[in-house]
Structures are given as C-alpha cells and as structure tokens.
Write a structure and sequence with these properties.
Elements: H1 2-20, H2 23-41, H3 48-84, H4 87-92, H5 98-137, E1 146-151, H6 159-172, H7 181-196, E2 198-199, E3 204-210, H8 213-218, E4 221-225, E5 227-229, E6 237-244, E7 252-258, E8 264-267, E9 276-282, E10 292-294, E11 300-308, H9 309-337, H10 340-366, H11 371-374, H12 380-397, H13 405-410, H14 417-444
Antiparallel strand pairs: 1-11, 2-10, 3-9, 4-8, 4-11, 5-10, 6-7, 6-9
Length: 453
Amino acid sequence: MTLTRNVPAIAGLFFRHCLRTRLVLAVTILIACIVLAVPAYVDGDGTTDGRIRIVLFYTLGLVSIVLSVVSLWSACAAIPIELESRRLHLVLSKPVRRLEIWVGTWFGLLALNALLLAVAAGVIYLQVQRVLAGATRDGGETPVLVGRRLARPIETVTAELVQAEIDARRRSGHITANVEDRDFFPAIEYELNVRAGTVQTGQTGRWEFMLPNRLKNNGALQLRFKFASSGMNDAPRTGTWTFGTRSEPALHHLSGTWTPFQYHDLAVPMEPPDALIVVQFENPLLGEGGAVIFEVEDGIVLLNHESGFLTNYFRAVLVIFLELAFLAALGLSAGSLFSQPVAVFVSYTLLMMAGLAQYLGIALVEDPNLPILYDPLPVPLINAFVEQVARISHAVTEPITQFNVLSRLSQGILVPWSLVRNALFVLIGGYSVTLGIFGVLVFHRREIGLPRI
C-alpha cells in the first residue's frame, strides 16, 4: 500500500527539515539552561529530598511547558509554511494523498517530540543522580525514589449520611424549604469529612484501610499524613499512632512529634496479616495545641513500595509524550484550516477555553451553590442553556485532566501502567484520532493551487 510507503517518507522529510532549522539545537540549549538554573536558584526545604522534588516537579514541569509550546507551534506551522513556500504543491503533484501528508507530518512531529523529550528526560535524570551523589558524599540521608501504590481510607461519609444531615438541618430550620438538596450536598459532605478527620484533645481518630492483594502481599507499608492544628499555629504536635486489625487494633504503637502543614512518612511496624488494617491516632491531653485536623484530600494514606524510580520515571515520561502527541494533533488540525498565526491563536484559545470549562464545570456541576458563578440569569432559558454548556464542556475536557504525573513522580507515588494505557486510549485513540479526522477533512477541502495576487 502507498500509505505505508509514503507516510514514513513524509515523516522523515519533516523531521530532517526541523533538524535543518536548528530547532532541536535551540530547544536543547533552553532545556539545559532550565535544568541547571532551577535547582540552583530554588532550593526547596534544603534537604536532599526537597532538592530532588524541585528537580522532578518544577524542572520537569517547565521542560514540559517548553516542549508543549514547541510542539503546538511547530504543528501549527507545518502545513501553512509548506503551502507558503509552494513545496506542498510539488508533493501533491505526485501520487500522494492528503491523508498521507497529514499522518506523515504528525508522525514527524511525534519523532521530533520523542527526540526532544528523550534529551530532556535524560538530562533531568542525570541531575537527579548528581543530587543523590552529592548527598552520599556529604553523608546526608539519601531519599528513596520509588513508585509506591497509594491506598486511601475506607470512606465513612456516605451519601445516606449526608442526606440525613441535610434532613436534620431542614427540620431544625437551618435550611429553608425553597433550597434544593443538591445545592447544599457538596458543602455538607465536605463538612462531614472534615469532622471525620478531626481528632480533639484527649480523643483518638480511627481509619480503616482495605488493601488490594498486590499491596497486601508486598508488605513494607508506609503511612503518609498531613495535618493542621485547630489554632492554625505551626508548633510541633505530639501524638501516638497505633496499627492493627479489627480484632486486634493495637498491635503496634509509634509515638513522636510532628510539624503541622507538612507531609510526614512513617514506616508501618507490621506485616499486614490480612487485607484490612486499622490505623489510629491519639491526641493526648497534654499541651495547648488543641484539635488535630487531617486534610480531607490525602490527609492520611498508606503507601507500598511497588516499583523502582527508573521505571516509574519512564512511565511518567511516556504520559508526557502522549500529551505532546495530542497537542501536535491539535495544532496540525488548526494548521490544516488556517494560516500559521490564526492556527496558533485558535489552538491556544481552545486550550484556554478547555481550562475555563474545567473551572466552570467544577463550579456548576460539582458545587452549583457558588453564588459568584451561579446567580440566576434574568431569563430562565438562558440560565439553563449556560448551565448545560458548562456541563457538556466539563464532560468533554475532564478526561484530559486526569494525567497529572508530575505530582505523583515528585512524591514517589506510583505512575501505573493503567494510567499510561488510559492516556493512550484517551489522548491518542480519542482526542487525537478525532482531531485527525477533522484535520484531514478540512485539509482535503482546502484549495491548494490558487494563484497569488
């Protein structure tokens, strides 16, 4: 088939053209400056672990932003520049279909992204190894960079419990009859979760974790927690952690002093005897710190070592590459219809609208009681239309936001192969294929041989 023969040739031509424009050299120099400058000027908390987090989160994040801009800009310019220089006219005079040109150009962009990302990932990995080597020479504690699977506590705040609280407040007159339950449901649910994660002075908080089989069989558990004091002061707090099962909830004790508003990791001093572990925290009567409030989102979790750093890092880089492939498809589709400046403007506008749709979707879908965004419009039909648009936009753009690998990687959280698979299906099989079909259709209908005026 000509498709299998022409597409690699077009991809190779586009890739070599990018190399001749010295784009790779310029971006490589920029990446090297970012990798060297960020750790030098941003030291984090001064520890080895903090410096590595800076390298992984901020340095890799900035590099991803640079590569995203380069990928989108190159994709927007690929077809318009070929049209402007009349090179595309020569290609179309041969037995080459426009589908092959579009797909070949996209694969050329993927090759360019792969090269630039591989260079960036390699340099960042060497920077991490340099920080680790410096910590070893200084005799400091070397952080364990691993991929740890996360287990959250069993939820105790159910929908029935939230509804019962709403009904109780209606009976007491705190919620009027003209307000719907859904308007208060998210706020009441959050309040009950905060209440469940609050341990008053002299009391004990209790959480139960149902461990998956893979987590249970591997052992080597760690407890990660973050809390705040009721007085909002940062004085260290003393307490006792207890680990066990439902039948024996106090198998092991671990006392200590920890600082609020920071993440702390503790090794769980037990091998999980079954799939369920009970974790308790005792807030002693002594001291003036008041209540201890664990964060609702990931305030207390169990972690288990499941992967080494290099494999976890590789999976994170793969997800970033798939995101760059999606941006390349977006820019190439825009360039198939518009000139380069207009294509760049349209692409960035769509990305900003996607971010705004996520914000409005969270406000109108997950928490519709926000008054600044949910004031009813004068015309009920328009109000309903705006809400439906926000819901649809949120549903369309929400799948893209689930692939945040930077925070996982910098915290030693596992980037599973399932996340890479989902990114492949969503970003490539879903969005990129859809954009590709649109781009090929509009490119096929675009007039190429028009005379210049």
